[in-house]
Design brief:
The protein is an all-alpha fold. The chain has one domain: Formate dehydrogenase/DMSO reductase fold, CATH 1.20.1630. 77% of the residues lie in helices and 3% in strands. Helix 1 (7-35) packs across helix 8 (158-182), helix 9 (185-216) crosses helix 10 (218-225) and helix 9 (185-216) packs antiparallel against helix 12 (235-251).
């Protein structure tokens, strides 16, 4: 009797988990990046208030992705983690310091400027480190047998540095969209200006990565350009261009306040799909497929039962928190 193949189900779960992390923690990291550019203290306080009720829960998805990778694709975890050890360590330290700075700026008023800088730089460094991990993953790892055979410094390549910078601007774009949605007046105008600058940088980075990856990897070039692949993959760049046009117009004040955030999410989604198409079906690029790196069927089934109970709970409390704190944030409603 044929058993149900759980690898596609787990791939979907982990893929959605990673995207939810990028979508949710991405915008509050972006808010932190823009926080350091805010014009005055009242604006910075309002920026903090816009994310204060929900920022902690956004990192749930990072834990889900890491634990899921370890449990369901242990071979991939064993290869990837040593390869990106330093950027992962930097990211975690930056996230910790960012969280400490968030809390202490309200309780240590004598050093508020220091904690403000800590929050902003912690957000930027954590984002840049995530971009390094992404770039290293796309480029692939040196593997011998079932082990990572390279150096922990191999991830610091020009391509990975480019993706690190690109992600900083990408999260800043998401953060600008969030501030446009949650604020008005001068602060919203500041977010629109910052969003337009970030958007230009993001589109330059997307173009650079889109050219660099097929030139560096013949397999990716074949995936996108060998006929008839362009015929059925054409919707990806076309939809990306439409989201880009929508985002630019929305940042200029057209449409509603929610559209800049939604269009930015659309750009991230299309970029995410582009990476997935380029690397499919590998989880350790060009070395191990999802099926080769997966744990036993019994392990996948056991973990899936618990996950299917847990995921609705996470989605419910996440949705409820955003619903409760919907609407514009004001100076007289804040975090205490």
């Amino acid at each position: 009797m044929n058993t149900l193949d759980l690898v596609p189900i787990w791939t979907l779960i982990l893929g959605l988990g990673v995207f939810f992390y990028v979508m949710l923690d991405g915008f509050d990291l972006g808010v932190g990046i823009l926080f350091g550019l805010a014009p005055d203290t009242p604006s910075r306080n309002l920026i903090m208030n816009s994310i204060a009720p929900i920022w902690d829960g956004n990192e749930t998805w990072l834990i889900l992705g890491g634990v899921g990778l370890l449990a369901v694709f242990p071979l991939a975890f064993a290869i990837i983690m040593p390869a990106v050890y330093f950027p992962i360590a930097i990211m975690l330290l930056a996230l910790v310091f960012r969280g400490v700075a968030f809390e202490f700026r309200y309780r240590d008023s004598e050093h508020k400027t220091f904690w403000d800088h800590g929050f902003s730089y912690g957000s930027m460094i954590a984002t840049f480190a995530q971009g390094l991990v992404l770039g290293a993953f796309i480029q692939g790892f040196k593997v011998e047998g079932r082990h990572f055979a390279g150096s922990s410094l191999d991830c610091f390549t020009p391509f990975a540095l480019l993706t690190g910078v690109a992600l900083v601007f990408g999260y800043a774009l998401l953060g600008a969209g969030w501030l446009i949605l949650k604020t008005d007046g001068d602060l919203q105008a500041f977010a629109r200006r910052a969003g337009r600058r970030a958007f230009v940088a993001v589109m330059v980075a997307v173009a650079a990565v889109s050219i660099w990856t097929p030139l560096a990897d013949p397999a990716i070039a074949h995936r996108w350009f060998a006929w008839p692949h362009p015929l059925y993959l054409a919707p990806v760049p076309v939809v990306t261009a439409l989201f880009a046009l929508l985002e630019w117009r929305a940042l200029g004040g057209r449409y509603g306040d929610a559209i800049p955030f939604v269009a930015a999410l659309g750009l991230f989604l299309m970029s995410y799909l582009g990476i997935a198409i380029s690397l499919w079906p590998y989880i350790v690029p060009r070395t191990y497929t999802l099926w080769q790196a997966a744990s036993s069927e019994a392990t996948q089934a056991f973990l899936l039962i618990g996950t299917l109970f847990l995921l609705p709970v996470i989605l419910l409390y996440t949705g409820w928190s955003y619903w409760v704190f919907r609407g514009k944030v004001r100076h007289d409603i804040g975090y205490h």
